[in-house]
Amino acid sequence: MNADDKVEENSPRSEEDEHDMPSDFEDDALEKIQALLNESIANAEQQNIVLKQFLAMMRANRTLTPEEREFLASPVPRPLEFPDMTGLRKCVADGYANNIMNIASVAKYIADGKAKNIIVMAGAGISVSAGIPDFRTPGTGLYYNLQKYDFADPQELFTLSYFCQNPKPFFEVAKSIYPDLYHPTKTHYFIRLLHEHGLLLRDFTQNIDTLEVIAGIPTDKLVFSHGSFAKSHCIGCRKEFSYEYVRDKVFSDQIAVCDACGAYVKPDIVFFGESLPEKFFERMHEDFPKCDLLIVMGTSLAVQPFAGLIAHVPETVPRLLINREVVCCKPEPPPADADEMDRYRYRVSSRFAFKDPENRRDALYQGSCDDAVQALADALGWGKELQALFDAPLPDKTKLFLPPA
Ligand SMILES: [Zn+2]
């Protein structure tokens, strides 16, 4: 129908209108409204707002505009076929789905009590708004300051062989990324909220800034996949050193040296070529089979074995990717007449299926992590709680990493 075709109130319908509008239009419209309420709005307060708008419209006895009529007559998006995943939508459309709809669907999935063991996988993107410099990427300010050391490859800084030879540049960089200097982001506090609502199974982070701890996420909920500054060890005799000891050295521009054997002391950050902490593999095997919602935030999923974790949740478990770029996504499916092996490989690939019309579990929010978690928190009715956590004074950081009494 053209927007020009104004339909007067109580005016007889033209033949064309009859053709455009099936007799069960009202039923379809009601179904649509019901579906919108059920599937896209998790929060009871928001449902009431929508209902009040419809009531006001009915009281005013206003005729629907052509746009409203078209909207209400359009088909209700097909819900998921897996019964345990109701609420999540497929996200295909023109490549990817509508951000808000996906956030709303995930929020509803959580609000319906279907996600009680959420696993978060987080990367550098969740700390960007805290001001943490992107220290691994050549060309950033941090590396600029290191030009005097004449690295062939700036990543050398994070190799054990270079550290043994000259730990000074590492400690220089460490000084500028020490967790003491930064305030956690809303995304960190959202993860804490998941924990406080009893929904967080584990937070696997790639970050070494330890902002999760400052945000108040208990350390038993955390897996520092690439290590952290929380502890340090002598690279000679493996003697353990406290967070405070090494931090004090770093901030007084000294090199931390072992008092037992004289070798350098290195924070437990995973260097290139070093294996990941044992806890990473232990928790991977124990936690991922129990996971009922995976939230991947602020990571390009470029570093293995961390990136491979997304394959470890059960096949029907919803996965939400929140990132500025679409990553780890398989292409559109091969045509029906393609080689059977190709179609099989496509089907079993564990990459995100945003472009697959059969996708029923992968949701995407393309944008900033803080915006995404704010939308999620609002949809769950946690908006004020999130803001209060973010605004609260920071804990005494000097006590954060002390072992429990
Ligand atoms: Zn030692």
Task: Write up what this structure looks like.
The protein is an alpha/beta fold and 405 residues long. It folds into three domains: 1-76, no CATH class; 81-131 and 184-226 and 278-405, Rossmann fold (3-Layer(aba) Sandwich); 133-181 and 227-269, SIR2/SIRT2 'Small Domain', CATH 3.30.1600.10. 35% of the residues lie in helices and 11% in strands. The protein contains 15 helices and nine strands. The strands form two sheets. Strands 3-2-1-7-8-9 form a six-stranded parallel β-sheet, sandwiched between helices. A three-stranded antiparallel β-sheet has the order 5-4-6. Strand 2 (200-205), helix 10 and strand 3 form a beta-alpha-beta unit. Helix 5 crosses helix 14 and helix 9 (186-196) packs across helix 15 (383-391). The longest helix has 16 residues, at 25-40. The protein is elongated, with a radius of gyration of 26 Å. The relative contact order is 0.14. Bound molecules: zinc ion (ZN).
